Amino acid sequence: MSAGGGGGGAHEAIPQNKLIAFGVIGGLVGIYAAYFLVDIIGPSMSFLGALGAICSIVWGASAVRRVANYGLGTGVPSIGMLALGIGVIATTFGLAVGGIAGPLVALVFASLIGLVVGMLGNKVLNMGIPIMVQSTTEIAAAGALTIVGLSTSMIGTFMFFDEIVNGVVVAQGVASGVMTTGYIAVIFIAGGLAILHPYNANLGPDEKQDRTLACAFEKGAIAMILAGIVATITPFASGSITILIGIAIWYVSFSGYYKRVKRDAFMVTGSGLLPSKEELE
Amino acid sequence: MEPLTGMGVMALIGAAATIAGASEDLESDVGSQSNPNSQVQLAPQMMYPHRIFNKAISGEPPSNALICAIGGTIASVLISSGASAVLALTIGAILAATVHGTYSVTSYLGRSASQKRFKQPIYLDIVRSHVPVMMGYAFITTFCILVVAYLMTTVLEHPFSLPLLAFIWGITVGAIGSSTGDVHYGAEREFQNVEFGSGLNAANSGNIVRKAESGLRNGIDNSWFCAKFGGPATGIAFGMTVFLSGWITVVFDASQSDALGWASIIAGAIIVLLLIIWNRNIEVAARNAYGPYKQDEEAEVAA
Amino acid sequence: MIDIVGIIAEDFLNILLITLGGMLIALGVHLVPVGGAPAAMAQATGVGTGTVQLAAGAGLTGLVTAGFMMNVTESMALIIASGTIGAMIMISVTMIVGQWMYVYGVGCPPASAKVKYDPITKDRQDLYVSQGTEGHGIPTASFISGVIGAGLGGLGGSLIYYSLLSIENGLPEANFIGIASIFAIGLFFVNAVIPSYNIGGTIEGFHDPKFKKFPKAVLASFVATFLAAIMGVVAIGGM
């Protein structure tokens, strides 16, 4: 891929700790709110899961931004694929054993594997990136919450198993509703790219944190819309509201992104020649 | 399944895969994606601002996996709600191409804006002219891969679901596209200003060709060039991968007996062996035809 | 509640096989000749893409063929062999078409900059490296190394997939093919990224000095995969 960052820490207007809190709390609140409110109010509340996922996507994108700024030597995408790989493993495990605590178990175990891989990277593979351990942990955890959030939004619950009463399936679980049907693939890659793409798309010496995060919101909204499309055919989740809110978030965040692009760019022009020699001096 | 039906389906799958491979590569040439894009990204820093699209969507395999998984998911949703397969695959591919458009736009705007200090402008006419072309190619790629995945799940009874198979073939087509066709773009088209017949000298890094046959060069000019060799060759590569890996299991049907299953493994091994020999032939022919770049100093001293 | 200890004890063999699969993938990635971004400009020997991407492309192709074979036969050896062959076909087709690009499109002969003589064909390499580059194209040693590497990747991936599907949980296989396959993909990515950190960009194959670093990555992948394997076995075994 393209050249990494120039090394050293990335300048940040919003401190990473705030974004961690935003991602973890926002993600978990969204997921649990979706779970309980779908039971209490009805399937229309399933969109909250995707909102939670957007919070963790923004957090993950910010963590990618910090670590990729050091230049990993293998391009930005690899760390995201690593994180999503860990995320999908931890999610399967967490939801299967955790029951109602599933998202928490997934979060903890994703952080655990992320921590181990990050330490292996620094200690065994001698990568020597100071924030490697913390960032791998963060990205893996964000990946797991994104997967849980989008799954919840697709089928209205994060329970792993089908709920069966007298031999009749009364509620579909993640195992049969998201994994067997293969929709996990789109969660995996749409969530993963939403975490990876923002920094990768804004790579360069004049990258700005707020512009990158605006892009993360926008890509998160696309993942939300996709979750909504799947939700249209599942009985315990409502697709239309998820899609509409997703489109609204997309519009707002894309406008915000474009505004920041115009603010940061050297020149935004309809068409024209290349800058002249004098201008380049 | 009738062996003859199997063969027919394999032929169709191979043809669809070939088209998908070719359009995938041309899409990445229009947008300048993946590894050759590192030179487009570097150029403004070396005082060479340009009018070439700068599309960085996290590497070609994930970006193609994204559009294929989106297409597969939407198609699968539509099929399960009763739509016909053709309609479902088409709508899936259209929406996937739309998402691809948003990813392309954000990366061009974002990467160019992050090069403010090198005075790289953002040209909106580049966005307007290139994004529809990329979306068109992305549509063709997605649709063809969905055809491959759909035929594999329904006719060949592959146990993976449609979205998952589409995802896997998306990763593979991206990996093949960035390994084969992109070399034609990165090593030749971007550096037509240096003599043909050698790799890029590190001293020329970033000095990409910025002027076209008419006007300033852009990504669409690049796809015109790569369509002559890089694109079709990528198509052959992906078509061969999908066709050969499926063909051996269709001809030697392991569901009849394990012995036939082993025959398919042997057939695959023979194919790999033939490719190794072919590669060696190309290597020898190239060494003889082009000759060494420098004289053997040791031999001269000895003489 | 799931009897976690019981499942781990019962399926310990599967956990070991999955871990072995992960280690095989990590080893295999070291053998695949990748030149990263420089190779796309014919500036480095190997295939012009990233380590993770190419390994994933080959390994997942192997997973598709193994999944197909698993559907029609019970024989473990056959399933794993078919995954291996699928990955080998993908990588050899990719490398040979890549070679067309270097030879016919760019006009340079394949050459390695890391060794003076190709360890397999004994051809002189250094004279064929064009000025200012670290080699280009895919010489025979790299080609064969890549075939073996992708084969190991496909072997590891299908071993993981097979082990996950042979867990006894009282359900028909069709009910957890989806979980097993996405889990195998997840593990594949983890085990493809770990060695790529070890390689750090480019490697030419088994003759590259960097190849000697592989035990580190295999060790790292052993630890990571073992943890993940326990989770996967518990998740599927408890269904």
Automatic annotation (TrEMBL), chain A:
What are the protein's UniProt keywords? Cell membrane, Membrane, Methanogenesis, Methyltransferase, One-carbon metabolism, Transferase, Translocase, Transmembrane, Transmembrane helix
The reaction(s) this protein catalyses: 5-methyl-5,6,7,8-tetrahydromethanopterin + coenzyme M + 2 Na(+)(in) = 5,6,7,8-tetrahydromethanopterin + methyl-coenzyme M + 2 Na(+)(out)
GO CC aspect terms: plasma membrane
Q: In which pathway does it act?
A: One-carbon metabolism; methanogenesis from CO(2); methyl-coenzyme M from 5,10-methylene-5,6,7,8-tetrahydromethanopterin: step 2/2
Enzyme nomenclature, EC number: 7.2.1.4
EC primary class: translocase
Q: What is the first-listed, main subcellular location in coarse terms?
A: membrane
Report the domain of life of the source organism.
Answer: Archaea
Enumerate the transmembrane spans: 19-38, 44-64, 76-98, 104-125, 137-161, 181-201, 213-233, 239-258
Listed under GO biological process in this entry are: methanogenesis, from carbon dioxide; methylation; one-carbon metabolic process
Report how it sits in the membrane.
Multi-pass membrane protein
Record bears the keyword Transcription regulation: no
Subcellular location, record wording: Cell membrane
MF-aspect GO terms: tetrahydromethanopterin S-methyltransferase activity
What this chain does, per the record?
Part of a complex that catalyzes the formation of methyl-coenzyme M and tetrahydromethanopterin from coenzyme M and methyl-tetrahydromethanopterin. This is an energy-conserving, sodium-ion translocating step.
Similarity remark: Belongs to the MtrC family.
The entry describes its oligomerization and partners as: The complex is composed of 8 subunits; MtrA, MtrB, MtrC, MtrD, MtrE, MtrF, MtrG and MtrH.
This chain belongs to which protein, by name?
A: Tetrahydromethanopterin S-methyltransferase subunit C
From TrEMBL, chain B:
What EC designation does it have? 7.2.1.4
One Pfam match, by short name? MtrE
A single Gene Ontology CC annotation of this entry is: cytoplasm
According to the lineage, what is the superkingdom?
Archaea
The keyword Methyltransferase belongs to this UniProt entry's keyword annotation: yes
Q: What is its main location?
A: membrane
Keyword vocabulary terms for this entry: Cell membrane, Membrane, Methanogenesis, Methyltransferase, One-carbon metabolism, Transferase, Translocase, Transmembrane, Transmembrane helix
GO biological process: any one?
Answer: methylation
Its localization reads:
Cell membrane
As its record notes, the protein acts as a catalyst of:
5-methyl-5,6,7,8-tetrahydromethanopterin + coenzyme M + 2 Na(+)(in) = 5,6,7,8-tetrahydromethanopterin + methyl-coenzyme M + 2 Na(+)(out)
Q: In which pathway does it act?
A: One-carbon metabolism; methanogenesis from CO(2); methyl-coenzyme M from 5,10-methylene-5,6,7,8-tetrahydromethanopterin: step 2/2
- Does Membrane count among this protein's keywords? yes
Membrane topology listed for this record: Multi-pass membrane protein
- Span-the-membrane segments of this chain are 85-110, 131-152, 164-183, 225-248, 260-278
- Gene Ontology MF, one: tetrahydromethanopterin S-methyltransferase activity
**HAMAP family assigned to the protein according to its UniProt record, in alphabetical order:** MtrE
Role noted for this protein? Part of a complex that catalyzes the formation of methyl-coenzyme M and tetrahydromethanopterin from coenzyme M and methyl-tetrahydromethanopterin. This is an energy-conserving, sodium-ion translocating step.
Q: How does it assemble?
A: The complex is composed of 8 subunits; MtrA, MtrB, MtrC, MtrD, MtrE, MtrF, MtrG and MtrH.
Similarity comment: Belongs to the MtrE family.
Q: In its UniProt entry, what is this protein called?
A: Tetrahydromethanopterin S-methyltransferase subunit E
Q: What is the lineage of its organism?
A: Archaea, Methanobacteriati, Methanobacteriota, Stenosarchaea group, Methanomicrobia
UniProtKB/TrEMBL annotation, chain C:
Q: Which UniProt keywords apply?
A: Cell membrane, Membrane, Methanogenesis, Methyltransferase, One-carbon metabolism, Transferase, Translocase, Transmembrane, Transmembrane helix
What GO terms describe the biological role, i.e. biological process, of this protein?
A: methanogenesis, from carbon dioxide; methylation; one-carbon metabolic process
Question: What are its E.C. numbers?
Answer: 7.2.1.4
Q: Main subcellular localization, coarse class?
A: membrane
Q: Name one GO molecular function term.
A: tetrahydromethanopterin S-methyltransferase activity
Reaction(s) the record says it catalyses: 5-methyl-5,6,7,8-tetrahydromethanopterin + coenzyme M + 2 Na(+)(in) = 5,6,7,8-tetrahydromethanopterin + methyl-coenzyme M + 2 Na(+)(out)
Q: Where are the transmembrane segments?
A: 12-32, 52-70, 77-102, 143-164, 176-197, 217-237
Report if keyword Methyltransferase is assigned. Answer: yes
Its pathway, per UniProt, is:
One-carbon metabolism; methanogenesis from CO(2); methyl-coenzyme M from 5,10-methylene-5,6,7,8-tetrahydromethanopterin: step 2/2
Under the heading Pfam families, the entry gives: MtrD (PF04207)
GO CC field: cytoplasm; plasma membrane; vesicle membrane
Which cellular compartments is it found in?
Answer: Cell membrane
Membrane topology annotation: Multi-pass membrane protein
- How does the record describe its quaternary structure? The complex is composed of 8 subunits; MtrA, MtrB, MtrC, MtrD, MtrE, MtrF, MtrG and MtrH.
| Record-stated family | Belongs to the MtrD family.
Explain the purpose of this protein.
Part of a complex that catalyzes the formation of methyl-coenzyme M and tetrahydromethanopterin from coenzyme M and methyl-tetrahydromethanopterin. This is an energy-conserving, sodium-ion translocating step.
Q: Which HAMAP family match?
A: MtrD
Q: What is this protein called?
A: Tetrahydromethanopterin S-methyltransferase subunit D
Q: Which gene encodes it?
A: mtrD
